[in-house]
Specification:
The chain has 159 residues and is mostly helical. It has helices at 7-16, 21-28, 32-42, 58-67, 72-78, 83-92, 105-114, 119-126, 130-139, 151-157. It is elongated, with a radius of gyration of 23 Å.
Length: 159
């Protein structure tokens, strides 16, 4: 099964070509743990699991999140990664996460129904995730508009 996977080949694939354990495993028709075992056996150091993101360090994250009050989502877009990655890095660097503002029914009705703001707009205003806004709308019985347009807003505004 792992024929042709000698030390030099594995070193070339993993170190020089920067292929993941999973990609190498697919190439040789085995599990990633078998490749991981071979790396250890051949003395090839494993890369850290956390992806290095150029420019993302504790001081930059603290400036963006704490001083400039950018959301996790906005920071994630800046660094082309997920908000969860940014959340994990905040924890790693000891940056305390903000608690989202209270999402009550009256506030959601005002922002979503009366003002016609989008889920995304509301999440940014309140400093929380879009999913939390969606969940609260459902909990409070606020019917969500169809995605992708303002047709709903204008049709219901005429009533």
């Amino acid at each position: 099964m792992l024929e042709g996977l000698d030390r030099e080949t594995l070193k070339r694939l993993y170190i020089t070509e920067q292929k993941s354990l999973h990609k190498i495993a697919r190439m040789f028709g085995c599990s990633h743990s078998a490749i991981q075992y071979r790396c250890k056996k051949y003395g090839i150091p494993l890369r850290p699991r956390t992806k290095k993101i150029k420019g993302l360090n504790g001081s930059t994250l603290k400036r963006l999140y704490v001083k400039e009050h950018k959301s996790l989502s906005k920071i994630a877009k800046m660094f082309l990664c997920s908000p969860i990655t940014i959340q994990n890095r905040c924890k790693k660097y000891g940056i305390e996460l903000r608690k989202p503002k209270e999402l009550n029914k009256a506030m959601l009705q005002k922002l979503y129904i009366k003002e016609g703001k989008t889920i995304r707009d509301i999440a940014e205003i309140l400093g929380c995730s879009r999913e939390l806004v969606r969940i609260r709308c459902k909990q409070f019985g606020i019917e969500l508009r169809p995605r992708g347009g303002n047709k709903w807003r204008y049709a219901n505004a005429r009533r």
